[in-house]
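Risk register update: the risk of archive-format incompatibility is retired. Evidence:
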Amino acid sequence: MSKFILPAAALIAATSAFAVDVEIHGQAAADYAAYFDKDFDPTSVANQKVNLEATAYMDENFSVTVKAKSQSYLVNGEASETRHGLARGTHIDSTDGRYTAFNFDGIEFRWEFSPNVAFLFGDLSYNAGSINYYYWRDTDLYANIKRTETIRGVGMEIGDGRIYFGGSENNASSLIMYGTYPFAIINRTNENLTITPSADWAFGTHTGRSYTYFFGTEISYTKSYDLMNYGIIASWGTHPYQGVGVHTFLLEPSFSYDFFNIGLTFYQALLADDSEPVEKQIFTDEQTLLAVEPSFTLHKKFAMGFAYEYHDVSNEIDDDEFQYFGPNFYFYPTANAEIIFWGGYNARETGANGFSFGMSGNVSF
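Archived output:
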């Protein structure tokens, strides 16, 4: 932890001496779950992830941001989180997996030399096609088009558009160029339609990843009438795997009227090679996902819903599907804070069915 706290303290102390504004932003998330086997013996898992950013504004146009992150890990070093169907999280008694140190996660210099135009240098992160399904929201782990990648290099921000160029943090033998721009087709008080294409390209013979490029497009539409609101998020992405194109599709419609809400997530991947493992070809670990949840907002600080989920890890493998049924209880103690209690039943095609329950908390500041 001292790896981050000491430099951060020094930064804040130094900037205070020069009357520089410093802002601290971040996110803290933690969860716990218990999964029961056929003998009703539990397996307890617990995870956490903390992101911190300290931004020093040297003046109204120039700033520097230092980032740090701590995240629980599985035994094999893979970042973990609790999710339905599989006790994928860190075992609660795993000292090495749960109590990880804060590590340096990037530095970024930003100079807005003209209104809505900025030059950036440092560790620049990007992703595309984020998924609202609650166990796939972390873009470090899951995305429809491209999970989070970080490069050290230069960038330009023009309005909401971005262009980055630099070396990948995952490979010393490649350079990556990335670009995106949102086109606001409809921009009214009660109606919005935005189309956002994005792409990257890795230059080099050994890029350190299984694909040379990705390309994708996201579409977001929302409409509101007094107490009724509805919208849809859709995205498509493609990238090559061993020279053959992979295509991924995401559809997330939502509807609310007064205190009633319903949301749906449908994800489908068309693989390049059905004989290869699914997780090597896409940015999730399941080829098909369908999740739907009707819910009721009973108070401004409380809502409850009932979820149904269908999971298929590989369309080519029989009997690896499972279904999940269960309630969710949402509490909102204050702005930007959420606590969730859930419980349910996993029905598998093969293997033992089982009950599970858990809770999670998330705060942004």
